[in-house]
Amino acid sequence: MLILMKADATDADVETVCARIRELGFAPNRIPGKTRVAIGITGNPGAIDPAIFARLPGIAEAVAVSRPWKLVSREVKPDDTVITLPGAGGTDVVIGGGRFVVMAGPCAVESREQLLTTATAVLEAGAHILRGGAYKPRTSPYAFQGLKEDGIALLAEARAATGGMPIITEVVDTRDVEFVASHADILQVGARNMQNFALLEAVGSTRRPVMLKRGMSATIQELLMAAEYIVSKGNYQVMLCERGIRTFEPMTRNTLDLGAIPVIKRLTHLPVIVDPSHGTGDYRSVPALARAAVAVGADGLMVEVHPDPARALSDGPQSLTPANFARLMTSVRAIADVVGLRL
Ligand code: PEP
Ligand code: MN
After folding, report:
1. 243 Cβ closer than 6 Å to some ligand 1 atom
2. Radius of gyration over alpha carbons of the chain, in Å?
3. Ligand 1 close to Cβ of residue 191 (< 6 A)
4. pTM of the full predicted structure?
């Protein structure tokens, strides 16, 4: 159920409605809107009778929400979610709402030199956010697992060295959420953890923006339900990421599901980022899919870049050199111009 308040409803009216919802044993979720406040009700096992609310002051309408995901749905919040972060050189980085954002950097943080070289190069080429994994979820227990705390420290150093380029990094364990959230600007939840509900609740309890990657065999509905876990904990700063799904096709690492983007944009107000690196697994395919992502209506890109891909400790085959990344940015800008997006 969604309660739409009248435009002139007072804070006291909103509080009265929230108190009544709590009295019924459910959770009120205030949804910030451009013109008026809406209150989403969660925690109710079945339908609620709208008549319960009919006589409370300030209510315009009580509407049933037909979808199993509620707080992330466009039905509940028609306006795009816009996430704003302080960026390099004091300019804000804006994610969502008609802007296009580019996150780039190595798959894994490997050393100070590797990270700082990449950070400087991607910033110079026009990237807004630096990516780099410090805690790496690897298929093999013998593969490089990341520099962990030392990697986080290097990311913080790279942010300082670039004049404040925001950093995004993956958190894989609930026990690390507080530590990672105290350093990173955006928390990444990886494909393998999309339905790690304890982790979703833990990042939902922080007030750091979160990027939730689609699981490799997750439906759009499952992705939205996973995002609902985060938002239902009170963290509205969530973006989604399409990074390819597993299909019968072995010639690409994953099948980048660009057809999901317009569907996701219709169903939810959350920004959606496309990751053509994991989506294709091959650096030669990344620029073409990056251009396609802009054209199809994504809100941004996440691209893996490494100064020496042949020597990368993870995902070298899909990593672009800084020079290739700079070329990608030029062609992405051209498409952004055509579709009227601001980069
Ligand atoms: C990554 O971004 O490096 C990563 C591990 O991605 P995914 O979770 O999509 O596999
Ligand atoms: Mn990777």
Report:
1. yes
2. 21
3. yes
4. 0.94
